[in-house]
Amino acid sequence: MDTARQMFEALGYEFEKEYTSDGENDTYRYTRCFRVDSIVFDLNDKNIIVSKIFHTISLNELQAIIQQCKELGWYKE
Fold it and tell me: Domain of life here (predicted)?
């Protein structure tokens, strides 16, 4: 099984970790198309923010999102 990062990278996304000194806005961010499309995992509040130009998520993107949630311990089967 591939990691979420590998799955996103296969879809053309780049990965960034963003940590703030105050710990308030810690995120994992996946972006592509010059940052137009992004999927952000808010590590503090356990939110997922999706910003895409066409407002749709492919099945492969959904699978990568679910895999990331599993890796973060947010999703239990």
Answer: Bacteria
| Its pTM surpasses 0.85 | yes
Residue 71 CA to residue 57 CA, distance in Å, equals: 20
CA pair distance 50, 64, nearest whole angstrom: 13
Domains of the chain, by residue range, sit at 4-72
Q: Give the whole-angstrom CA distance, residue 77 versus residue 55.
A: 27
Which residues, 6 or more positions from 46, have their beta carbon under 8 angstroms from its beta carbon?
Answer: 72, 74
pLDDT digits (tens, 9 = 90+) for 21-35: 787 779 999 999 877
At residue 35, the pLDDT reads 73
DSSP reduced 3-state for 62: helix
